[in-house]
Amino acid sequence: MWRCDMDKQGMKEKWMDESTDFLKNIFQEIEKICNDLNLNNHEDDIAVRSTVEVLSEWLRFLDGIMLLFIQGRVDVAQVLVRSLYEITLQLLYLIKDKETMNEKANFYVAFSELKKYSTNNNMIKNKKKIGADTLKGEIENQKILESLTSSENEELRFLYEYFLDKGLVDKDLKNDSWYSVYEQYCQDKANVMKDKKIKNISSSILCEKVGFYSEENGEKILVNTIVYNELSRQAHGVNARDSLKVIDGVQKFRNYNCLQNGLWQLSLIEKIKSRIIVDCHSIFDEKLGKISDETYIRLYEAKTALDLLRKDLKALYIF
């Protein structure tokens, strides 16, 4: 029994190391795209700059996921994987096509500033309730509004007026997103009767809008359909309940370093990486060039590496 436990621990450590190496390779692939876009953005294009910002945030989350995987804390990593997935959908939506990319980027920038204003506004209101000083927050909010109303970018000034018209400037925006507002803007342009209400877009709808599908047994399945339940388990408290079982009157807790949930996370991240690479090279072909044969080889090798991780994990849990 002691030998069996020792062998199993060695297998777990090997899988943790190899899965982390797998994620490091993905990190390096996306980091190169991010750096190349940034270095080649000589004209300070707002769409490129916004893409670099989103990719940088994407890399920050992946870095956190790697740190958790190397320690075998793959259950905890699920929260970061969910955020990584949601950021990916926004990125794919932003760069979906060249015709709307700049317009979307302006919305992303303007609404992000407005969301800072909204968050700051809530803090100011709460401080006033307890009699705390709010001057710093008020000065910061004034700067945010001036960055929109006095911007050299005519589009940002126009969008501030649009936000005013929609009643968004003084609204609590914690449940609103830039892409939902952009979709409403597109509807407003198409309709004579404008709707004051912003309809929030779910991750499923956004996933469908960007066409993020996976080939499963010869059929195309929306990625959101495949992963949403897993991504939501911790957020909705399901994992917490499943981590404790009572067997013969004794509480049994799930091991904190259980690796079983690691594979679907790696599989999702690999799908995301491939889609980002393809889309970025397609949209920013003048800055990144076409996808090289070497890149296609690495994409294939990543799928092979994932298959090996799948086999090793299966062997570990039927040991």
Question: What key attributes describe this structure?
Answer:
globular, single chain, two-stranded antiparallel ribbon, two-stranded antiparallel sheet, 319 residues
Descriptive report:
The protein has 319 residues and is mostly helical. Helix content is 72%, strand content 5%. It contains 13 helices and four strands. The strands form two sheets. The chain has a two-stranded antiparallel sheet with strand order 1-2. A two-stranded antiparallel sheet has the order 3-4. β1 and β2 form a beta hairpin. α1 packs parallel to α11 (262-283) and α8 packs antiparallel against α9 (223-232). The N and C termini lie close together (12 Å). The relative contact order is 0.14. The mean pLDDT is 91.
Radius of gyration: 23 Å
Task: Give me the count of strands.
Answer: 4
* Strand arrangement, major sheet: 1-2
- Total number of helices: 13
Write down the overall geometry: globular
What share of the residues lie within helices?
over 70%
Give the overall average pLDDT: 91
Which band does the percent of strand residues land in?
5-15%
Distance between the termini: 12 Å
| Structural class by secondary-structure content | mainly alpha
The profile of the biggest β sheet is: 2 strands, antiparallel
Order of helices and strands: HHHHHHHHEEHHEEHHH
Oligomer: single chain
